[in-house]
Design brief:
The structure holds two protein chains of two kinds. Chain A has ten helices and 24 strands. By secondary structure, chain A is of the alpha+beta class. Chain A starts with a helix and ends with a strand. Chain B has twelve helices and 22 strands. β3 of chain A pairs parallel with β2 of chain B.
């Protein structure tokens, strides 16, 4: 992507005023998206973003500059600006010689989306539209979105590291509105993987559309969610986002270092019931949060965060790891070359238990079954979180009964971990997500088997 | 330096005749400082570029965008957008904005101190903010972030249909998030932000004081039990909640039947206490603008008068869908298609303020934070279910603080049950100018 000699010269310029560490991150990203709404293919968009972000570290200070100009002078200007921002003292000339790492090679995709005709992509949208509308006359609106991206990155730093990756992601989502006695109800389904157009070998867009339509139709007959604390059973794949928000963020080393995490200083302590093993794994091939190298050039890792209820480690990026004299865990990520990397999750999941899912529901006298959670939010300093429930049912006398709508789940992450009393053997990854932190969004995956939390608060409208 | 108008003209000129082509070119220069422990944690200085091209040909629309002014990237954009348009379906609503004779009201959005203030002085603001927070109260345990940021931005929208708009603006902000030790060993947090056209307008002490007060007021908070209190939204939350209402008045939602208010023009949809309009021509609003995202003049758009729905916010496309004129409310990033949205929400002041409202409530809740707004609001149905922290109001006085609560209900019902609109207008960083608003009809839930 960039001549290695030019990379060396740019790093040298970045270090000229005495920086301790310098890094060049080059990105070239192409994307295509198409949307269908109201029965019509509306917008086809092509995007191209190309540029470099350069950071220089002096002591605890990071200077950062980015540029869309990848010429020698453009890079030199950005390197000088980053160095000035980091206020390097010292001086003198530092020579840097990067060498390609012997790390993992980019994972090839089988069908590059760039080689697929736009008409073929658009056709998927129409198929989904027809399938959703065919489900029921009560489906009054359908929107669908196709998206693909190819992101090539090069990372080089003054430690001599040079690594490249070629990341292809493909995404499809469909949303439906059903109209009935309870007004307008919505249902959604999505799939996204770090693969090429072969995504659609497995993902049947018509089946997805029917599931989205089914969710909306189900909610037409749903009653308002109850309010109060009660047992909650979360279905397979539906609740990974809960652990991403409620626990994962608190295990990010940058937040831990600022004591902005409820898990600070607790490594080695029991923080969850022994059923719980929480893992963050960027190596899971094909998953939405997968990559070969992170945005600091480190190989993706399989990191056990909680083992049988005991907190084992946090997630690390280069800066935090360097401070602690340990290796990065491959969790340094950034939204684009215009952003500084920080500690981010990849694919975060609770590993399988041994309970039969039916037994978990069957042994729940009364409570709520959540099949799909919507977006959520956590205050990492307190662990308090809130989530929307996009598909949920009452559990009465050990059986899943009536659908409920428009409620959210609220609770505290560390408390939830100590209240998991049943864990199923039916692990599944959930829907693709975008995790937001300090204004940066990155693709993440999550997953869980069926599990039960003995008490969570549901905030609904039923009296 | 690349002259934006020149680049836009060049791209327009490269388009084959016959198609309608719109070019949007933007540039932003940003400075961002994060401080921790009295030191600069990171300092970002950068300039970013973006070009977006929209082509309408035979009632089909296509887009292409790039984050670079390099010729090898920009010269293919028109062709790419044309090609994309060929795969879209015919839609009579599609069309570029055409000059409509409404004169733009010039708004001075440029504060030269963004450029003239030294980086050292900007860093000093963030350092001073962190120090002020830490010194404010012994219960303050730490500061998660103390951040100064500013941008200088410039945008040109030009089209083959005669649009030619050029806007420049500056913005600066200062924000912090404070952590406070609670009696039970837990942590409560408080945050505050100030925004102005430039660093000179920012008030370090105000941001520090507000963040600390907001953290301290939640000490000892407990989970609430289920109730239907009268809910008091301070201006910053009133802006959030009324912003949700305004988003439900987007013409695009009306065209697609995605709002409960689609057929209600001329009918009362809110209590008669509420009169609300969008007005980006008000220079007092931080979101003030002369031109919208399609290059039409921004203007005063009435939304609610004494609770009666006046109309909707439109861009060119939604207006064509309903057979009306654009209200100059197109909002967009350079990277995508415009859509209608409010910019500078104004509420006509009523009577009373926070203190007088609290004094008149027997069973209420003063909201201190709202969580999960991005997932808990269904703009199609109007249902709302969000996380809440706050302070209960009992017999006219502030009582116990609560956390891990939820607030749920339906926005249309909430609008009809507005029982108070204050006189205490406040300018919000996001551009709204709104007072305290008090509502009935929401359910407070919790595990208490």
């Amino acid at each position: 992507m960039l001549d290695h000699e030019l990379v060396n010269r740019t790093l040298g310029t970045a270090l000229r005023t005495g920086g301790e560490f310098a890094e060049v991150f080059v990105e070239d990203k192409r994307s295509t998206s198409a949307t269908l709404d109201d029965g019509r293919v509306e917008e086809l968009t092509s995007g191209r973003d190309r540029g470099a972000g350069i950071r220089v570290v002096v002591g605890d200070t990071t200077g950062f500059a980015h540029t869309a100009d990848l010429s020698e002078s453009g890079l030199a200007t950005a390197a000088t600006a980053a160095a000035a921002a980091a206020r390097g003292g010292g001086g003198g000339v530092k020579e840097v010689a990067v060498r390609p790492s012997a790390g993992p090679a980019p994972r090839p995709v089988r069908i590059s989306p760039e080689d697929v005709a736009k008409a073929t992509k658009v056709e998927l949208l129409s198929l989904a539209d027809a399938a959703a509308r065919g489900e029921s006359a009560s489906i009054t609106q359908v929107s669908a979105r196709y998206g693909d991206s190819r992101r090539r990155i090069l990372v080089a730093n003054s430690d001599g590291l040079l690594a490249e990756d070629d990341q292809v992601r493909t995404l499809f989502s469909v949303s439906c509105v059903a109209t009935g006695d309870t007004g307008l109800q919505t249902g959604r389904e999505s799939t996204g993987r770090t693969v090429g157009f072969e995504l659609f070998d497995d993902a049947d867009v018509e089946a997805m559309a029917r599931r989205a339509a089914g969710r909306a139709i189900t909610k037409l007959a749903a009653r308002p969610a109850p309010s109060g604390a009660m047992p909650v059973v979360v279905g397979p794949g539906g609740g990974g986002v809960l652990f991403h928000e409620a626990c994962g963020h608190g295990l990010e080393a940058d937040l831990v270092a600022k004591s902005a995490s409820v898990f600070a200083g607790r490594v080695g302590e029991t923080v969850a019931t022994p059923l719980v093993t929480l893992i963050d794994d960027g190596t899971m091939a094909g998953e939405w949060g997968h990559f070969t190298i992170d945005d600091e050039g480190r190989p993706a890792g399989h990191n056990v965060l909680i083992q049988d209820g005991v907190l084992t480690d946090y997630m690390w990026d280069h800066l935090r790891a360097r401070k602690e004299g340990r290796p990065s865990s491959g969790n340094g990520r950034r939204q684009s070359y215009q952003h500084l990397p920080m500690v981010r999750m990849t694919n975060t999941f609770i590993s399988n238990g041994t309970d039969e899912p039916d037994d978990i529901v069957g042994s729940t006298e009364s409570g709520v079954y959540v099949a799909q959670l919507g977006g959520g939010q956590v205050n990492t300093a307190t662990g308090d979180f809130v989530f929307g429930m996009t598909e949920a049912y009452l559990i009465e006398n050990g059986e899943i009964t009536e659908p409920i709508r428009e409620g959210n789940l609220i609770g505290n992450g560390p408390e939830v971990l100590t209240r998991i009393d049943a864990l199923g053997n039916d692990f599944s990854m959930g829907s693709p997500g975008t995790c937001g932190k300090d204004g940066q969004g990155v693709p993440v995956g999550d997953g869980t088997p069926t599990l039960r939390v003995t008490s969570l608060t549901i905030g609904g409208t039923a009296a | 330096m690349v002259e934006l108008a020149e680049l836009a003209r060049k791209i327009l000129a490269s388009a084959p005749p016959g198609d309608d082509v719109e070019v949007c070119v933007g540039r932003a220069v940003e400075t961002s400082v994060r401080v921790h422990g009295g030191q600069v944690e990171s300092l970002t200085v950068a300039e970013s570029h973006a070009v977006g091209v929209r082509v309408v040909t035979g009632s089909r629309e296509g887009h292409a965008h790039a984050g670079s002014f390099d010729a090898d990237v920009t010269e293919g954009l028109v062709g790419e957008a044309r090609d994309n348009a060929s795969f879209a379906e015919v839609d009579e609503r599609v069309g570029l904005a055409v000059p409509d004779g409404v004169a733009a009201v010039p708004v001075d959005r440029w504060d030269p101190t963004v450029e003239s203030t030294s980086v050292d002085d900007k860093i000093a603001l963030a350092v001073a903010l962190e120090a002020a927070v830490l010194a404010a109260d012994p219960r303050v345990r730490g500061v998660r972030a103390s951040v100064y940021g500013d941008t200088r931005s410039e945008r040109v929208v030009m089209s083959s249909t005669g649009i030619d708009s050029h806007t420049v603006g500056t913005m600066a902000s200062l924000s912090t998030s404070v952590m406070v030790d609670d009696v039970d060993g837990g942590t409560r947090t408080g945050g505050a932000v100030d925004a102005a056209r430039g660093p000179v307008g920012l008030d370090v002490d105000k941001v520090a004081d507000l963040a600390v007060i907001r953290g301290l007021q939640l000490l000892g908070a407990v989970a609430p039990s289920t109730a239907r209190p009268t809910v008091v939204f301070e201006p910053r939350f009133a802006a959030t909640v009324l912003g949700l209402v305004a988003s439900m008045l987007s013409g695009e939602r009306v065209v697609k039947g995605r709002t409960p208010f689609a057929d209600r023009v001329g009918a009362p949809i809110a209590a008669d206490l509420l009169t609300m309009f969008d007005d980006p021509t008000d220079p007092m609003s931080l979101a003030a603008a002369a031109f919208d995202g399609e290059g039409l003049a921004c203007r005063h758009v009435p939304l609610l008068s004494d609770g009666v729905l006046d109309g909707f916010l439109h861009d060119t496309r939604s207006a064509r869908g309903l057979g009306v004129r654009s209200t100059g409310s197109a909002s967009r990033s350079v990277r995508g298609a415009p859509s209608p949205s409010h910019r500078s929400l104004h509420v006509v002041p009523g009577t009373g303020d926070l203190a007088s409202f609290i004094a008149g409530i027997d069973d209420g809740l003063l909201v201190a934070s709202l969580q999960g707004l991005h997932s808990g609001v269904n703009a199609v149905s109007g249902d709302l279910s969000v996380g809440v922290e706050g302070i209960r109001i009992r017999n006219g006085e502030l009582a116990e603080p609560i956390r891990e609560g939820t607030l749920a209900g339906a926005i249309p019902a909430m609008l009809r049950h507005i029982v108070g609109v204050g006189a205490d207008l406040e300018h919000q960083p996001g551009g709204s100018i709104v007072p305290t608003v008090v509502v009935d009809g929401l359910t407070l839930g919790g595990g208490g």
